């Protein structure tokens, strides 16, 4: 049976275009990052491990089941569990994007457990926010090569913090999600801008 439907190719094309844009900004260097989109049957289109995310072709997007098992014999992202955990938790989430931007990579060197974003007009680019008079926290987790352990730590945090839009992994990058690839890309771009603001502000405030 051919599992790669028109819907799969349409979502794959969205991820490929997102990857080109994200790479044009320098946010997925040297094969870093991973992207996924949920399909109507619950399976997930996700980037094949080790591919350059700015140069994706249709063959670089594969199919996994909701538990992260490959359905087409290719090897999914090493960080697949961080995607499947988000889809399991949030029924409305349709896409997950993970860049390795400089700002997200450096954030934990400047901030400890979180970055607080407050009083920025661009917060309105995040789903559900309609005023700059909003305060959100983006948690920072220690990096970990043990992805199941990292996923468990993230899960434990999200159990207690329902309204989280993204998380940073120290020295690594960040994860964000949304109701479509386009919405998730908007979240990614807005958060990246806001991290940049906070990092510049931090530099200005230093004695
Ligand atoms: C070269 S980046 C190291 C792995 C990583 O953090 C990443 O985002 C890419 O891994 P993948 O298996 O998804 O290609
Ligand atoms: Zn990564």
UniProtKB/TrEMBL annotation:
<dbReference type="GO" id="GO:0046570">
    <property type="term" value="F:methylthioribulose 1-phosphate dehydratase activity"/>
</dbReference>
<feature type="domain" description="Class II aldolase/adducin N-terminal">
    <location>
        <begin position="13"/>
        <end position="199"/>
    </location>
</feature>
<comment type="function">
    <text>Catalyzes the dehydration of methylthioribulose-1-phosphate (MTRu-1-P) into 2,3-diketo-5-methylthiopentyl-1-phosphate (DK-MTP-1-P).</text>
</comment>
<dbReference type="Pfam" id="PF00596">
    <property type="entry name" value="Aldolase_II"/>
</dbReference>
<feature type="binding site">
    <location>
        <position position="98"/>
    </location>
    <ligand>
        <name>Zn(2+)</name>
    </ligand>
</feature>
<keyword id="KW-0862">Zinc</keyword>
<dbReference type="InterPro" id="IPR050197">
    <property type="entry name" value="Aldolase_class_II_sugar_metab"/>
</dbReference>
<keyword id="KW-0456">Lyase</keyword>
<comment type="similarity">
    <text>Belongs to the aldolase class II family. MtnB subfamily.</text>
</comment>
<keyword id="KW-0486">Methionine biosynthesis</keyword>
<dbReference type="InterPro" id="IPR017714">
    <property type="entry name" value="MethylthioRu-1-P_deHdtase_MtnB"/>
</dbReference>
<protein>
    <recommendedName>
        <fullName>Methylthioribulose-1-phosphate dehydratase</fullName>
        <ecNumber>4.2.1.109</ecNumber>
    </recommendedName>
</protein>
<dbReference type="InterPro" id="IPR001303">
    <property type="entry name" value="Aldolase_II/adducin_N"/>
</dbReference>
<keyword id="KW-0479">Metal-binding</keyword>
<comment type="pathway">
    <text>Amino-acid biosynthesis; L-methionine biosynthesis via salvage pathway; L-methionine from S-methyl-5-thio-alpha-D-ribose 1-phosphate: step 2/6.</text>
</comment>
<feature type="binding site">
    <location>
        <position position="100"/>
    </location>
    <ligand>
        <name>Zn(2+)</name>
    </ligand>
</feature>
<keyword id="KW-0028">Amino-acid biosynthesis</keyword>
<dbReference type="InterPro" id="IPR036409">
    <property type="entry name" value="Aldolase_II/adducin_N_sf"/>
</dbReference>
């Amino acid at each position: 049976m051919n599992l790669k439907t028109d819907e799969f190719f349409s979502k794959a094309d969205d991820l490929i275009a997102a990857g080109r844009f994200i790479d044009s900004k320098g946010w997925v260097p040297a094969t870093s990052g991973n992207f996924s989109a949920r399909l109507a049957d619950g399976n997930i289109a996700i980037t094949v491990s080790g591919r350059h995310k700015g140069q994706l072709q249709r063959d670089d997007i594969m199919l996994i089941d909701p538990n992260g098992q490959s359905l087409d014999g290719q090897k999914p992202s090493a960080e697949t569990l961080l995607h499947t955990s988000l889809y399991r938790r949030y029924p409305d989430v349709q896409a997950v994007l993970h860049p390795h931007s400089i700002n997200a990579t450096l954030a934990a060197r400047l901030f400890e457990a979180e970055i607080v974003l407050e009083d920025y007009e661009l917060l309105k680019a995040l789903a559900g926010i309609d005023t700059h008079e909003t305060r959100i926290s983006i948690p920072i987790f220690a990096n970990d090569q043990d992805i199941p352990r990292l996923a468990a730590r993230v899960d434990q945090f999200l159990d207690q913090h329902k309204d989280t839009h993204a998380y940073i992994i120290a020295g690594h990058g960040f994860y964000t999600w949304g109701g479509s690839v386009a919405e998730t890309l908007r979240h990614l771009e807005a958060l990246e801008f806001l991290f940049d603001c906070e990092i510049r502000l931090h530099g200005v405030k230093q004695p």
